[in-house]
Design a protein that fits this description.
By secondary structure, this protein is an alpha/beta fold. The chain is built from 9 helices and 7 strands, in the order αααβαββαβαβαββαα. The protein has a single domain, classed as Vaccinia Virus protein VP39 (Rossmann fold, 3-Layer(aba) Sandwich), CATH 3.40.50.150. It is found in: Cytoplasm. Its EC number is 2.1.1.166.
């Protein structure tokens, strides 16, 4: 049970059916200012402020027209995009169900499904100018395995961005502590003018998550890929 009253440092007792870890998570939620702000501002999760924090630093939301949101559930990032650009076409995908969001097309399917990339791009009237990925693999409790599983998703998202973005576009993805793996970083630097890592203020200090922001997609002609394949 949560302690009543206005004490900002609210404590949660461990109930018989509640584990210590779940009690700790609930206490963090009760004391988290971003959780409270999300409720006040009408966002579905505190994650909305991570995207807002990244945009405040890198300014990639302004003027976007076509956006892909990978790992959309519960929808906070797409809400941010729609508020920034009400006319933007937004398509999202997640293996988990997501409540409808006005102006957003949502696919409930695994992004790793062979049919997923085409389903996303066919929905947009043109190439996306922004690809967002807040995807993370379900953890199994083994640090190295969890890292590899999540980075495999990030790599898939990066290749999707490279293969679909319009010239000048932006790719934003969640990575883990240590930043982007060497091969993936090489891929991004080959295809984007700038590649930066950042931890927005809304990311909890104890969290291992970081974000990579790759801006200024060079396009296939500029990287010489068309010439190599001709």
């Amino acid at each position: 049970m949560a302690r009543s009253g206005s004490n900002p440092d609210r404590r949660v007792k461990t109930a018989k059916k509640r584990t210590a870890s779940s009690a700790a998570w609930l206490q963090r939620q009760l004391n988290d200012p971003y959780v409270k702000r999300a409720k006040q501002d009408g966002y579905r999760s505190r994650a909305a402020y991570k995207l807002l924090g990244l945009d405040e630093r890198f300014t990639f939301l302004r003027g976007t027209k076509r956006v892909v949101d990978l790992g959309i559930t519960p929808g906070g990032w797409s809400q941010v995009v729609r508020r920034a650009n009400p006319r933007a076409a937004v398509v999202g995908i997640d293996i988990l169900p997501t409540d409808a969001i006005e102006g957003v097309t949502i696919f409930e399917m695994d992004f790793m499904d062979d049919k997923a990339p085409a389903a996303l791009t066919d929905t947009l009237d043109g190439s996306p100018d922004l690809v967002l990925s807040d995807m993370a693999a379900n953890t199994v409790g083994h640090k190295q395995t969890d890292h590899l599983r999540t980075m495999a998703l990030v790599e898939a998202a990066a290749w999707f961005a490279v293969e679909t973005l319009e010239q000048g576009g932006t790719f934003v993805a969640k990575v883990l502590a240590g930043g982007t793996d060497k091969e993936l970083l090489t891929l991004l630097k080959q295809h984007f003018r700038t590649v930066k890592h950042a931890k927005p203020p809304a990311s909890r200090k104890g969290s291992s998550e970081w974000y990579v922001v790759a801006q200024g997609f060079k396009g296939r002609r500029e990287t010489g890929e068309d010439a190599e394949q001709s």
